[in-house]
Write a structure and sequence with these properties.
Blueprint lengths: L6 E7 L16 E2 L2 E2 H11 L5 E6 L4 H10 L6 E6 L4 H10 L6 E6 L7 H14 L1 E7 L6 E2 L5 E3 L7 E10 H14 L7 H8 L5 E4 L10 H13 L5
Parallel strand pairs: 1-4, 1-6, 4-5, 7-11
Antiparallel strand pairs: 2-3, 6-10, 7-10, 8-9
Length: 237
């Protein structure tokens, strides 16, 4: 599917991944012969929905990404590799500032290898509605909200609870303005990009279905699950 819009993927690969207990950051760890980061970059590379990739990584890893990932695997859509920041939101803002002449952006965590073109399509269709869409899946488990003393405060209806993933898709002008406002406020307390829009612009945000296989590599157990997925799914090889 080709997009009628210009769309840039901002892929975050600046995390240290300390919970993995490895010297190599989690997004660069080998997953069935290729770096974890390669899988999502390859999806954006082959998708007709994106025409450019901005890769955000640690300053010390820029050369590594250029030589060992972008050049090695022929990822020609990666037009810019920019330095990440101290926090995730700093890295996203740096990535957004590196975008140019684009109508939509897909902000994605490079430690989530198993996005698909169909997920990208659903996210973009959702973002057409209001300018903002997050990918996620309905929670399989009952969720409890705790109070400050460690007791259950409330139990939301499971049918209304979604586990949020990436990519999160936005009209570029909207997310750039939202980030500008929250960064200038000096009081940043967000855990995902949708929260930036919620706190600054009040824009209604669409939900689009991702996949239960759209896992985030955080611990060694996650990497084992990902290996099982790759080994059992030819489309990821």
């Amino acid at each position: 599917m080709e997009s009628k819009y210009s769309c840039t993927a901002v892929v975050l690969a600046a995390g240290q991944g300390r919970r993995m207990g490895t010297d190599l950051p989690k997004q660069f760890l080998p997953l069935c012969g290729k770096p974890v980061l390669w899988y999502s970059l390859n999806c954006f590379q082959n998708s007709g929905l994106t025409d450019r990739i901005v890769l955000v990584t640690g300053k010390e890893w820029i050369g590594y990404c250029e030589e060992e990932i972008v050049q090695k695997y022929g990822l020609s859509k990666v037009k810019t590799i920019t330095e990440g920041g101290e926090n995730r939101y700093d890295s996203v803002y740096n990535g957004l500032k590196a975008c140019a002449d684009t109508e939509f952006v897909m902000i994605h965590d490079g430690a989530r290898p198993f996005i698909t073109d169909e997920i990208l399509r659903r996210g973009l269709l959702g973002a057409e509605k209001t300018g903002a869409c997050v990918i996620g899946m309905p929670s399989k488990d009952t969720v409890k909200i705790a109070d400050q003393e460690g007791f259950i405060k409330e139990t939301p209806q499971r049918s209304s609870v979604w586990i949020i993933q990436t990519p999160q898709v936005f009209r570029y002008s909207l997310i750039r303005e939202a980030y500008r406002r929250i960064m200038e406020s000096g009081t940043v307390n967000v855990t995902d990009d949708a929260m930036v829009v919620e706190q600054t612009l009040g824009t209604k945000i669409a939900l689009a279905e991702g996949s239960y296989e759209n896992l985030k590599v955080t611990t060694p157990d996650d990497l084992l699950k990902c290996r099982a997925i790759v080994e059992g799914t030819k489309s990821f090889r």
